[in-house]
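Q: Given only this backbone (294 positions), what sequence would you predict?
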C-alpha cells in the first residue's frame, strides 16, 4: 500500500547494518504505509527501526500502529508512540494479542515533515493466546445466582421469552466446559445470552375478575339482598338468568379469559338479572261470595 523509488543504493548493495537502507513512502503521506503479516493466535511484539538519511536539518514525524480484525469481527488497533525522527536511529516495539488467525497491518502514517519511512520490521511471538471465558462466566453466574440483581426467575416471564433465554443459557454453559471452544464462539454466545436476557418479557397482568366474582356471589348467596330464588321467577326469565350465571362461572374458571370476555359475561349476567320476572300470585276466592252462592 506504499510506493517507493528505486533508491540510491545499487541492487547488489550488501550491508550488515539494518539501518543502512529503508523504505520511504512515495505518496508523501497521502495514505499510511502498510505492511501485512498473517499471524496465528498468540501474543506478539512487532518492532521497527527508523533511520533519518537527510540528517538533523530535516524533520520526519510519523505515527506507527498495528491493526487487525478480532474473532468477533471487530477492528482492533494498537498505536505506538509518535516517531520524531531527526538524526539518531530509533527503534520502537508494539505488543498486541490476537485471539484468532488474522492479517495484521503495520501502518506508518504521516504526521509532519518528510514522508514516512522505516528501515526494518521484525515480529516475534511472546506467548500462546489463552481463551478468556471470564466475561461469559460472569454473565452466566449473574443470571443464575439467586443473590444476583440479574437473577432470572422463570416464573416472572412469558413462556416464549424465557424459553429463548434458557436455550442461550444452556449453550453458554456448555461452552464454558468445552476446552476446545474458540474466543469467537465465546463472544457470540455472550452476545446471544445478553440479547436473550434483554428480550425477556413479563406477562401481562391478569384481567380483573373481581366485578364478575361479586355479581355471582350476590346472586347466589342466600344471605344477599340480591339472592335469586329460582322458584320466585317465571321459568323463562329464570332460565335466561341461569344460562348467564353458567357463562359467568365458566369465565371465572378460565385462566385465559380476556378483559373483554369478563366484561361481556358481567353485562349478560346483570342484564338477565334485571329481566327476571316474578311469578304471578294465584287469585284468592272471596269467601263471602262463595257463601252467598251455597
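A: Predicted residues:
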Amino acid at each position: 500500500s506504499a510506493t517507493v523509488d528505486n533508491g540510491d543504493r545499487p541492487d547488489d548493495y550488501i550491508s550488515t547494518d539494518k539501518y543502512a537502507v529503508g523504505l520511504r513512502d512515495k505518496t508523501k503521506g497521502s495514505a499510511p504505509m502498510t505492511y501485512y503479516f498473517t499471524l496465528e493466535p498468540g501474543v506478539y511484539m512487532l518492532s521497527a527501526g527508523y533511520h533519518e538519511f537527510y540528517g538533523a536539518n530535516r524533520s520526519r514525524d510519523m505515527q506507527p500502529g498495528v491493526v487487525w480484525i478480532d474473532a468477533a469481527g471487530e477492528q482492533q488497533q494498537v498505536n505506538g508512540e509518535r516517531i520524531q525522527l531527526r538524526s539518531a536511529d530509533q527503534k520502537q516495539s508494539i505488543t498486541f494479542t490476537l485471539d484468532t488467525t488474522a492479517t495484521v497491518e503495520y501502518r506508518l502514517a504521516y504526521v509532519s515533515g518528510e514522508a514516512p519511512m522505516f528501515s526494518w520490521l521484525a515480529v516475534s511471538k511472546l506467548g500462546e493466546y489463552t481463551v478468556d471465558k471470564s466475561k461469559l462466566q460472569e454473565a452466566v453466574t449473574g443470571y443464575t445466582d439467586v443473590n444476583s440483581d440479574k437473577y432470572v426467575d422463570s416464573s416472572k416471564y412469558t413462556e416464549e421469552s424465557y424459553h429463548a433465554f434458557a436455550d442461550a443459557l444452556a449453550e453458554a454453559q456448555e461452552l464454558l466446559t468445552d476446552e476446545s471452544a474458540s474466543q469467537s464462539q465465546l463472544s457470540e454466545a455472550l452476545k446471544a445470552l445478553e440479547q436473550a436476557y434483554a428480550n425477556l418479557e413479563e406477562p401481562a397482568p391478569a384481567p380483573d375478575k373481581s366485578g364478575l366474582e361479586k355479581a355471582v356471589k350476590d346472586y347466589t348467596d342466600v344471605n344477599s339482598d340480591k339472592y335469586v330464588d329460582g322458584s320466585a321467577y317465571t321459568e323463562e326469565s329464570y332460565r335466561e338468568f341461569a344460562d348467564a350465571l353458567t357463562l359467568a362461572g365458566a369465565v371465572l374458571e378460565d385462566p385465559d379469559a380476556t378483559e373483554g370476555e369478563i366484561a361481556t359475561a358481567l353485562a349478560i349476567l346483570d342484564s338477565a338479572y334485571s329481566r327476571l320476572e316474578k311469578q304471578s300470585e294465584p287469585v284468592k276466592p272471596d269467601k263471602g261470595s262463595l257463601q252467598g252462592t251455597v
